[in-house]
## 1
Amino acid sequence: MNQPNAPAPTSDADYEQVVSTAAAAAAPVAAATPADRAGWLEAVAAALADAADELVEIAQDETRLPEPRLRGELVRTTFQLGLFADVLREGSYLGVRVDHADPEWGMGPRPDLRRMQRPLGPVAVWAASNFPFAFSVAGGDTASALAAGCPVVVKAHPGHLRLSQRTAQVVTNALHQAGAPDGTFALVVGTDNGRLLVTDPRIKAGAFTGSLAGGRALFDLAAARPEPIPFFGELGSVNPVFVTPGAAAERSQDVAEGFLGSVTLGVGQFCTKPGLVFVPSGSGLVDRLAEGAAGLPGAPMLNDRIREGFATAVGELAARPEVTVLAGSAEVAEEPSLALFTTTYDQHARAREQLEVECFGPAALIVYYDDPAQLLEAAAAIEGQLTATVQGTEAEAGVVGPLLDVLADRAGRVLWNGWPTGVSVTHAMEHGGPYPATTAASTTSVGTAAVERFLRPVSYQSVPDDLLPPPLQEANPWGVPRRVDGVLQIP
Ligand code: NAP
């Protein structure tokens, strides 16, 4: 990832300037009205769209991703900023609850209590390598933290440093012109500066997308601080797919095509790539997968570090005595094409830990099972996942009903007859899951609920009306949805 003209690590003096300015901006950013912050986000979105040609050209040069993909990702990024602006104007993210004083309250008289969400303070964001726009400098973590009212310091990913720096300039200028305080947003470069950020007492939360090892190291640092902070790490996942006998019999061509498209999308470099597939023994589906895989071309990966990581993971998987090559090769080429491996249910059950490993690239392990009851056993034993998919038929309710139940316990998103790649940015999206899929199972890194990560609730007790924040005042001057004496009120 040594790139010509890439920016050097941020100096100690510049780091200090960035973080002290972010800390100073925390109060004014929190005090800005949601409508003001919505305007900031829309200004950033417009500036990124204006700079699209320049940004996409740099991104192509640094990430080897094709232009249409990058342009689509930039649209996703600007849409995401706009959607958080809508969230701010709607106001329910503030979670306002008003309980008037009640001398007759069932457990004894209650005082006047008013609760709302407030921003945590400066947030550090570790940009991802595989989405240079949508999960990077101006991506979902940044958008949701700014929406919450938190200044943001991004630690640039070394895979696209020039793009990170140029994007940061566009974002900073747009925020400045829209009236945001200095320090609302900044970028730092360098691994050590990332470690400084997560231990810096002025930083109040972290958000990360990347490897299990990297995320866990930073999570541990966040937890070991004298004042621990929340650290929202989105880590790895094998995204299991469970193909029932009915689906394999009735739709094997569709299932094969859908799977091959999903596992190779973006050269397999998606955290939602389906990397583990349970298929009934003896079904023709496996032949279709092998035939389909044979014709697929290779493509360059994001950078040498990712390709080397993929080659190591695939090499270790292929070397396991339980594993056989079905298609492609255990030797990862310069431009890898799809590699499919197989094993049996019993062998898989004996070595789950070694076989359920993420190979971040175009590869998957197919597990043959004999009895649909084994699908339930496998699902119950699986580690926390971002997604889990059932390819089934409604006629198999006795199998798929319990399977969906078990999977809802193991994964953040459960899919029926779909494919996990492609994560819509919308209100009902859950992109999270139990550890090790993430370090914080109770929230999401994609979708509008992501804003909740950077907020904490405060109750005001018996505070005079004109001293309360506007959303809690009796007249509700911002017109936000509120639960008043237990009843939801939508203006
Ligand atoms: P990574 O190695 O985890 O790096 C992500 C970020 O964390 C980088 O900014 C990196 O800084 C920093 N970091 C990592 N370990 C650190 C440590 N011990 N101390 C301080 N900072 C640390 O992830 P990556 O480079 O994107 O890709 C490597 C692997 O991550 C892939 O092969 C894949 O398995 C996984 N991945 C997952 C996702 C996902 O969506 N969940 C996305 C992309 C990649 P430096 O690079 O400056 O050291």
Note: The mean pLDDT is 97.
## 2
Amino acid sequence: MRISVFGCGYLGAVHAACMAKLGHEVVGIDVLPQQVAALSRGEAPFFEPGLPELLTEAGASGRLAFTTDAAAAAEATVHFICVGTPQKPGENAADMRFVNSAVDAVLPLLKAGDVVVGKSTVPVGTAEAIARRIHDAQPGAELVWNPEFLREGFAVKDTLHPDRFVYGVADTEQGRAATATLDAVYADALSDGTPRIIADLATAQLVKVAANSFLATKISFINAMAELCEATGADVTLLADAIGHDARIGRRFLNAGVGFGGGCLPKDIRAFMARAGELGVDQALSFLSEVDSINMRRRVRMVDLAREQCGGSIVGRTVAVLGAAFKPDSDDVRDSPALSVAAQMQLQGAKVTVTDPEAIHNARKKWPELAYASTVKEAVQDADVVMVLTEWSEYVALDPEELAPLVRGKQIIDGRNCLEPATWRAAGWAYRALGRP
Ligand code: UGA
């Protein structure tokens, strides 16, 4: 198949490379010349395991090209819209500028039989408007809304082997032809038995935000339980293990800690609430506002815990923050709880040094006022408190005995409940965590 991919950020770059890996002819289009230049050289503009190898392999095959020129999509028959929908500054709603300009760019190129595939996360109702514009511009072209569920850090695997496909598509002959075209694109995964759900446009758009809202709710649920554990002396990790054994609940996404961040969950629940308000059903999602509040309270509590550890004040205290990325195996610092806590500590008078295996470059751009160190050993030098805020495997594996001679105070705060308290305590450290005695 000949494929174009509009938007070569996280979603689009991975999608383009994976489509080429599947044997399709792919052109990726982005408005940022530096993004296009990096991808054309086979370099991933962000940290994602497996992507550099895939870009090199696909580039060498001659099936993958990147350009800033939207006209290059004219040859393609399947056009993926993979641009971002960030939160609007000062509002909960999603900023639809990039989706609108991608649609503007693709419309004049459409031929009869072409399929436009929407993958961006959008407010429900967007796809219907795009479908109308497509039919006005080229009655023989069709829209399929095909939300993406990839996780950063597992993006290549999730794209090549998704756990399900959702197609939102008109129940017409042309819609069925578009379904067959998309089936040909995903033939490999479909032949492996990946479930495929055919839905209307509204359902397909809702599936994505409903899934992210559920995940955010699950995390905030366990973090709310952590607040109860803190008030009662209970242990939230044991609680999660115990309730997680109930298959109806499940243990995944029940890790209590400093909460969720990133470029998706926080902005998606807010955009969903904003859209519900426009639709007159804001009450249905008012619980998401509580989910958001619980999540944000964890960051405040984290700073309070550090203050308690420092004997009541963090002013002038030296704090080492291990982790800047919003989660491990990513260099993404968008709405990162780790960076948000580090910045708060600094603003409240602590001397904060942050380290991260991959995200220092991005963190420094966002918070140039913080001090950065490239290794854990440098970061913890003379620290009064060490805080683990992103559970990179190398932090989980830290040896408390090795770290002890480097710090001023043997005080560790485990913001992700990822360390073994007994090991740290046995080595003479004061161990504190959220939701644990
Ligand atoms: C999320 C969804 O998981 C994907 O399915 C979705 O496709 C993606 O958003 C998107 O909308 O594009 P992602 O943002 O990569 O993926 O990150 P997650 O793995 O969901 O983690 C989100 C945040 O929750 C992280 O800050 C993580 O540390 C936190 N988290 C996760 C917890 O605090 N506890 C948990 O138990 C799990």
Note: The chain has 18 helices and 14 strands.
